[in-house]
Inverse folding.
């Protein structure tokens, strides 16, 4: 459990899993009591309500559980799934590991939570999951750099087709008058790459590009920046991003050369 403790310093995983067990036990007891009450009511020719358990708000695509508590195992599974989704969300937020994820990995994690597609919240599963995530930080980091590269727009005269140049166009930065979450997630990948290459602490995902742009727009500004780039946006919703650290841009280009050696060599020639 050492790796997990180091990653989720503010949480006792043992205490969390013990509490989860206690909650599930109480849910099971409550369902058993409801089933017993239902059977007593039927035997006495009394009425009993048709009970509905709807966990769709937490787990999309999961069936609604209705009817008799003879199916209480199904009901318990549905309730436990909602309990575990909340636990995994809490652990991820407190660990800060979302910061290591690129936009694609964050989207995949969020979809799993929305679908209730999570493992049982046990100490062993927590350790295995967070150890795997911690160990893949480097791959996720390079993946973020590659995704940023692939999503660039090449219709700006200073863009180069096989490397990061001085500036890039950021398409659809604003969508229908609002800051585009998908695009700011991609900018967070870029910020994260610069932080790692600059030897700086990786930023909290809750204070990323979306916050930077939204605060500037609330002040009726059309530009914003940080230590690594300056960003200006226009009425058509696109933005122009100018890099502030050529040395870090070159380090990112070395990552591209690692994954696209032939393309970069060809461009150099």
């Amino acid at each position: 459990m050492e790796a997990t403790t180091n990653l989720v310093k503010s949480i006792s995983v043992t205490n969390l899993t013990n509490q989860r067990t206690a909650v599930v036990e109480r849910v099971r007891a409550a369902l058993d009591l409801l089933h017993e009450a239902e059977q007593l009511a039927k035997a006495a020719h009394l009425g009993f309500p048709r009970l509905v358990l709807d966990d769709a708000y937490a787990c999309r695509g999961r069936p609604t559980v209705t009817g008799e508590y003879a199916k209480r195992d199904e009901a318990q599974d549905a309730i436990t799934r909602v309990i575990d989704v909340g636990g995994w969300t809490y652990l991820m937020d407190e660990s800060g590991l979302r910061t290591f994820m690129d936009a694609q990995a964050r989207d995949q994690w969020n979809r799993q939570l929305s679908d209730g597609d999570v493992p049982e919240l046990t100490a062993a599963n927590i350790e295995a999951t967070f150890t795997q995530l911690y160990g893949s930080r480097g791959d996720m980091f390079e993946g973020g750099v590659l995704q940023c590269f692939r999503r660039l727009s090449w219709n700006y005269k200073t863009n180069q087709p096989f490397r990061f140049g001085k500036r890039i166009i950021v398409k659809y930065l604003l969508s229908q008058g609002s800051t585009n979450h998908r695009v700011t997630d991609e900018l967070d990948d870029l910020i994260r790459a610069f932080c790692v290459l600059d030897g700086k602490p990786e930023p909290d995902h809750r204070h990323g590009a979306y916050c930077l742009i939204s605060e500037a727009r609330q002040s009726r500004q059309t530009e914003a920046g940080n230590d690594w780039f300056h960003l200006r946006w226009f009425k058509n919703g696109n933005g122009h991003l100018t890099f502030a650290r050529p040395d870090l841009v070159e380090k990112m280009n070395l990552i591209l050369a690692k994954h696209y050696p032939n393309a970069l060599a060809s461009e150099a020639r």
